[in-house]
């Protein structure tokens, strides 16, 4: 099939950038070398980090599962070569802020001994869900950059029919050439991988989009497509405009369709995958190999021998750079990814991970201060998402995180076109990343505080409820008592009367029983004396008691 | 190996702020040279004076505001403001008038509002309006084309108001063509008669039409260089032209035609250099059109029926006020958004 069938469209904005690609494409992809150690972060993909299956001291073989998938959005992690697990601890991982994360460190034994792998059955006979499972078990994530588990993207759900599978071979960022070299050297594997994905998705049609600055790769793919007789696959050249390799931009160029804002291409029946991922899938489904290495471009004027290498996942970057001839003496900065969307590394003592496509070392370090925004709108003219970057910046600067969402912050793909053209040299994308992170943090906090508030409110409600119940009970009891009282009144009166009578009688009796009325004077005196003595005695004994009690009190107070 | 994080991205198109501002200055050059050719040394004196005042007051304000002086002076924005102001003010304006206007533009309209990027009003137009309202009698002192004053005579006239011997003031000064139309119409003269005066050339004011052509060339070059957006000059000029066409069609004796409007006064200068000031103009594509149409209408209305000789400065300032609202309601539809 020829490429004339695809009617090309354009996306808004974009830039013509200097490519700098030639410096890393004049050599064949170097074979994988085995570094002295491998450092494997448990999380190399979007989603939950994998769950450990090994412990320090374990001997592992190449391809052995080191950590299994944990939850749905997760994939397993395999040993890229044979060796011994020396430790499992927090280590620096490639991250803009130099974060640490749990990593498995393997001391390699240089024997590169494989674990026994079973050859998978022919994928054409496999059910799409079994196919996806194998892709998952191979630990495959999107190798274009984001690292989203591939099997999920190949699962459109029962309701969505996939019209088109788009293969992203644009590689629009300057300097990066790993996909270019991969297509040149392994075009047949690319086509095979694409066919497997097409089978998994049951997609009728597939378009591979390649920027027209990669003629060699284009010809190689076309040849491979013909050789494989893959008639539903179309290999298409597209104009070289950055960021045509953005998922939504590429879909627009190849199909004319706009993926919905804040939605997925899946919503319009399209799935987009990267060529590197296609090769990984072909390796997994045809050779049974898990994802343990990838092609990485090591380039820039800060590198002595730029080129592409097949690198084991977990290889420390300093060892990879040394393998590429080392740094130029004037090297100033090291970037993971491309110059537009990559991020600066603070140290090269971090490993390459599944999503590392490029290491860019540069001799220049432009640190002129940013000037104020003059609202010139140059950023707006190049924005491929048709945003107003100047207004986003204004609100991010003012930390107005409500207003910034009115300006559709989350439609920003962080391509960096705005930063490239900003005359005030404001690092705009950094502001947007900052605002996004802040909003996510606020939302997390809000969910937490909502949860806490709900719990608190529930507790208050429960207490109030209990209080009311208790009061109700008391009220009922009281009412019942009142009723009883009213009922037994006549009886009670009778009892009271009787009691009164008895009392009166007793009083009378006691009066009667006193026989001291008709006594002589002497007798009376005697009685008085006796009474006085009794009184005295009692008062003395009282005092004694007091005296006895006091020390105790003192003791107590002591 | 450890690395430092650069503050800037590693790739940039190198169109920095100073490059942009220098480009604007360069684009002003053809018009200024023609201005010089027709009206003599005075305009160069005015530009130099305004630039000096602007740079000194800018440096002073930056140091008061505790901002780094060198990078901000190197952005050339103060020079652009000064040049625009000098080109807008009357050629024969006394030196102190230019100093006051520039000081007001830089100190109050720019820095007291937060400096570059934060000022809501176009500084040059604020400076212009301040002296226009405060010293109206000096705002009509324009030189006549080919007045024959040499550099020394021009300097004496500007600095001390001394007229060279054997030249009287009236022989070298005149009103602007627009002003003379206004005066003529108020005296019930028909337009055809007014434009017969030696003040007028082929399509606009004598000399002025050529200066406008010079600015037009510079402006088109800026458009080509993507330094200004097409929406503002096109919409503003089209609005003025359409209004002029309609009224001229209805009563040709009272209302000047579109060419007279476009090639007179500072219409072209304003459309390409003043209304396009990015800081104070609308920043959305649709907003820019609305903003520029607003300036066009207000300019025409004030020019035709208002009491001031020209309405551009007021029109620009009035529309500056509307910019935040315009911007908010003219956001473009984002990629992938539903209609």
Summarize the structure in words.
The complex is a heterodimer of chains A (558) and B (339). Chain A has 558 residues and is of the alpha/beta class. Chain A has two domains: 3-35 and 118-362, NADH-ubiquinone oxidoreductase 51kDa subunit (Rossmann fold, 3-Layer(aba) Sandwich), CATH 3.40.50; 368-483, no CATH class. Helix content of chain A is 40%, strand content 15%. Chain A has 14 helices and 16 strands. In chain A, strands 13-12-16-14-15 form a five-stranded mixed beta sheet, with helices on both faces. In chain A, helix 1 (128-137) packs across helix 4 (187-201), helix 4 (187-201) crosses helix 5 and helix 4 (187-201) packs across helix 7. Chain B is an all-alpha fold. Chain B has two domains: 16-174, no CATH class; 179-329, no CATH class. Chain B has 16 helices and two strands. Chain B has helices at residues 17-39, 42-64, 69-73, 77-88, 95-111, 123-134, 151-160, 169-172, 177-186, 191-194, 208-224, 231-250, 258-262, 267-274, 285-305, 312-329, and strands at 142-143, 173-174. A two-stranded antiparallel sheet of chain B has the order 1-2. In chain B, helix 2 packs antiparallel against helix 4 and helix 11 (208-224) runs parallel beside helix 14. The radius of gyration of chain B is 21 Å and the shape is globular. Chain B starts with 16 loop residues before the first helix and ends in a 10-residue tail after the last helix. In chain B, 52% of the residues are buried. The model of chain B has no long low-confidence stretch (mean pLDDT 88). The chains are: A alpha/beta (558), B mainly alpha (339). Chains A and B meet through strand 14, helix 9 and helix 12 of A and helix 1 of B.
């Amino acid at each position: 099939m020829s490429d004339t069938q695809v009617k090309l469209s354009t996306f808004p904005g974009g830039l013509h950038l200097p490519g700098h690609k030639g410096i890393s494409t004049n050599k064949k992809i170097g074979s994988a070398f085995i570094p002295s150690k491998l450092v494997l972060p448990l999380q190399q993909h979007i989603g939950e980090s994998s769950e450990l299956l090994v412990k320090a001291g374990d001997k592992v073989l190449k391809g052995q599962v080191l950590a299994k998938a944990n939850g749905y959005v997760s994939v397993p992690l395999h040993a890229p070569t044979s060796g011994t697990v020396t430790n499992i601890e927090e280590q620096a991982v490639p991250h803009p802020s130099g974060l640490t994360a749990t990593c498995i460190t393997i001391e390699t034994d240089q024997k590169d001994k494989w674990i026994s792998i079973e050859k998978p059955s022919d994928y054409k006979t496999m059910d799409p869900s079994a196919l996806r499972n194998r892709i998952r078990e191979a630990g495959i994530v999107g190798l274009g950059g984001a690292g989203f588990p591939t099997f999920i993207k190949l699962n459109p759900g029962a309701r969505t029919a996939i019209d088109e599978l788009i293969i992203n071979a644009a590689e629009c960022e300057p300097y990066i050439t790993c996909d270019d070299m991969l297509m040149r050297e392994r075009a047949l594997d690319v086509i095979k991988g694409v066919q497997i994905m097409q089978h998994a998705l049951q997609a009728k049609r597939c378009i591979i989009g390649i920027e027209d600055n990669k003629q060699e790769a284009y010809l190689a793919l076309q040849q491979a497509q013909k050789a494989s007789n893959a008639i539903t696959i179309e290999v298409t050249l597209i104009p070289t405009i950055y960021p045509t390799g953005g998922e939504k931009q590429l879909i627009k160029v190849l199909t004319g369709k706009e993926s919905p804002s804040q939605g997925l291409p899946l919503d319009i029946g399209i799935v987009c995958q990267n060529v590197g991922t296609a090769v990984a899938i072909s390796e997994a489904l045809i050779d049974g190999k898990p994802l343990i290495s990838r092609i990485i471009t090591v380039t820039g004027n800060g590198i002595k021998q730029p080129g592409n290498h097949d690198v084991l996942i977990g290889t420390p970057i300093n060892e990879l750079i040394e393998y590429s001839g080392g740094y130029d003496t004037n090297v100033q900065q090291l970037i993971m990814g491309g110059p537009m969307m990559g991020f600066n590394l603070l140290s090269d003592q971090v490993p390459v991970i599944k999503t590392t496509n490029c290491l860019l070392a540069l001799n220049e370090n432009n640190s002129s201060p940013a000037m104020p925004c003059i609202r010139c709108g140059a950023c707006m003219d190049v924005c491929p998402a048709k945003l107003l970057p100047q207004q986003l910046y204004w609100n991010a600067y003012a930390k107005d995180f409500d207003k910034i969402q009115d300006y559709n912050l989350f439609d920003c793909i962080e391509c960096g076109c705005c930063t490239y053209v900003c005359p005030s040299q404001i690092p705009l994308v950094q502001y947007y990343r900052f605002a996004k992170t802040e909003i996510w943090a606020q939302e997390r906090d809000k969910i937490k505080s909502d949860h806490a508030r709900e719990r608190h409110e529930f507790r208050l409600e429960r207490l109030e409820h209990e209080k009311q119940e208790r009061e109700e009970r008391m009220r009922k009891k009281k009412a019942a008592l009142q009723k009883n009282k009213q009922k037994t009144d006549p009886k009670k009166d009778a009892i009271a009367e009787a009691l009164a009578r008895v009392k009166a009688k007793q009083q009378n009796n006691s009066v009667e029983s006193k026989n001291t009325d008709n006594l002589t004077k002497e007798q009376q005196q005697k009685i008085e004396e006796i009474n006085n003595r009794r009184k005295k005695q009692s008062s003395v004994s009282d005092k004694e008691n007091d005296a006895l009690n006091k020390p105790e009190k003192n003791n107590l107070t002591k | 190996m450890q690395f430092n994080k650069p503050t800037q991205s590693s790739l940039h198109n190198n169109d920095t702020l100073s490059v942009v501002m220098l480009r604007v200055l360069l684009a002003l050059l053809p018009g200024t040279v023609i201005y010089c050719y027709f009206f003599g040394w005075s305009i160069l004196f005015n530009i130099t004076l305004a630039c000096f005042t602007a740079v000194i007051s800018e440096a002073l304000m930056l140091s008061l505001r505790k901002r780094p002086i060198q990078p901000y002076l190197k952005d050339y924005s103060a020079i652009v403001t000064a040049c625009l102001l000098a080109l807008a003010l009357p050629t024969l304006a006394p030196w102190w008038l230019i100093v006051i206007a520039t000081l007001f533009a830089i100190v109050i309209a720019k820095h007291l509002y937060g400096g570059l990027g934060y000022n809501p009003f176009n500084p040059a137009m604020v400076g212009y309006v301040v002296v226009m309202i405060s010293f109206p009698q000096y705002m009509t002192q324009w030189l006549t084309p080919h007045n024959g004053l040499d550099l020394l005579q021009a300097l004496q006239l500007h600095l001390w108001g001394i007229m060279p011997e054997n030249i009287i003031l009236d022989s070298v000064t005149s009103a602007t063509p627009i002003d003379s139309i206004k005066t003529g119409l108020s005296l019930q003269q028909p337009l055809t008669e007014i434009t017969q005066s030696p003040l007028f050339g082929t399509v606009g004011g004598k000399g002025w039409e050529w200066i406008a052509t010079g600015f037009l060339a510079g402006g088109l070059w800026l458009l080509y260089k993507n330094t200004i957006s097409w929406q503002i000059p096109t919409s503003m000029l089209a609005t003025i032209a359409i209004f002029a066409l309609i009224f001229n069609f209805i009563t040709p004796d009272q209302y000047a035609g579109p060419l007279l409007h476009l090639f007179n006064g500072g219409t072209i200068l304003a459309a390409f250099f003043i209304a396009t000031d990015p800081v104070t103009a609308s920043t959305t594509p649709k907003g820019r059109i609305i903003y520029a149409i607003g300036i066009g209408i207000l300019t025409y209305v004030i020019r035709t029926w208002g009491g001031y000789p020209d309405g551009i400065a007021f029109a620009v300032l009035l529309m500056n006020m509307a910019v935040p609202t315009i911007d908010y309601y003219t956001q473009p539809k984002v990629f992938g958004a539903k209609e």
